[in-house]
Known about the structure:
InterPro entries: BipA_C, BipA_V, EFG_III/V, EFG_V-like, TypA/BipA_C. This protein is of the alpha+beta class. Helix content is 22%, strand content 32%.
Amino acid sequence: xxxxxxxxxxxxxxxxxxxxxxxxxxxxxxxxxxxxxxxxxxxxxxxxxxxxxxxxxxxxxxxxxxxxxxxxxxxxxxxxxxxxxxxxxxxxxxxxxxxxxxxxxxxxxxxxxxxxxxxxxxxxxxxxxxxxxxxxxxxxxxxxxxxxxxxxxxxxxxxxxxxxxxxxxxxxxxxxxxxxxxxxxxxxxxxxxxxxxxxxxxxxxxxxxxxxxxxxxxx
Length: 219
């Protein structure tokens, strides 16, 4: 009939009553449609949803985290329905490396207050590679390779006292969910990396300008 359709899944979740609210909110963001809810009267609730297949990418990990490992879920292919629309993307931006080099502890120590980091000291990075999630909206170009200029032996030993928050390691499905339209994943047998589609900052700015809707003046 000419309509754009997509695959959908029938999802069944069993959760303790105290987690019903957060699970409902999670599935609403993923365009889930509640079909049935059953309260067993035992402290557990079963909910049946119809969800676009793309909405379930990385859902299991988030579901288990939010239900503290107590939730149960099962989903099977149901068929096709008209496209559900754009899924709500994350409200935060990305921390993007502005140069090639080796990640330094000193740089990470100063960057960790800006968001969640995906890399650790010694990691090789390049311009356009995503090294973390910005705590604010919008992307931020950062230098993750900056080292402290040492002036004496005491300064060198002071670096050992830096407390670094362990990096967040993304599995492939989590990386796919994290992506925005201008980002992509590089997957190898040893690692999963995130990067901007346009690596150079100048090229990224030009792409943003091209994507902006043009307005015409009234005649």
